[in-house]
Amino acid sequence: MDYRKTNAPTTTVTRDMMKLSADTGNVYETVAIIAKRANQIAVEMKQDLEKKLQEFASYNDNLEEVFENREQIEISRYYEKLPKPTLIATKEYEDGKVYYKNPAKEKNSL
């Protein structure tokens, strides 16, 4: 899922963890699933931001030539205003867009 087109809230939301963990039956497993997805989203966001900011990289060794670039500031502000990766991952989990499996549970059921 594209993190730029998410409808996740930008602020913290209180959630009922028992209702959220109904699929797995375990609160800790649910938190682990959401945390892993949040890490994936964070890595993707960081790579995208670094790729966009590489265009503005200055390879001069002269420290006196530091200047503000308006486009670079706008890009940074855009990424600052996006919802945090944990909020995006939680919203994806609630919407059923996160695929997960537990090999230990599958092994026991065989």
Q: Your description of this structure?
A:
It is built from 5 helices and no strands. The protein has 110 residues and is mainly alpha-helical. The protein has one domain (16-99). Helix 2 (27-54) packs antiparallel against helix 3 (70-81) and helix 2 crosses helix 4 (85-94). The longest helix is centred in the middle third of the chain and has 28 residues, at 27-54. It is elongated and about 60 Å long.
Reported for the largest beta sheet, the result is:
none
Report the C-alpha radius of gyration, rounded. Answer: 19 Å
Helix content: 55-70%
Between the first and last Cα atoms, what is the distance in angstroms? 32 Å
The count of DSSP E runs of length 2 or more, i.e. the number of strands, is: 0
Number of discrete helical segments: 5
Mean pLDDT: 84
Please, what is the oligomeric state? Answer: single chain
Order of helices and strands: HHHHH
Instruction: Name the beta content range.
Output: under 5%
Global morphology = elongated
What secondary-structure arrangement, pairings included, does this model have?
Blueprint: H1 17-20, H2 27-54, H3 70-81, H4 85-94, H5 103-109
Summed up:
The chain is mostly helical.
Primary descriptors:
110 residues; mainly alpha; 5 helices; 55% helix
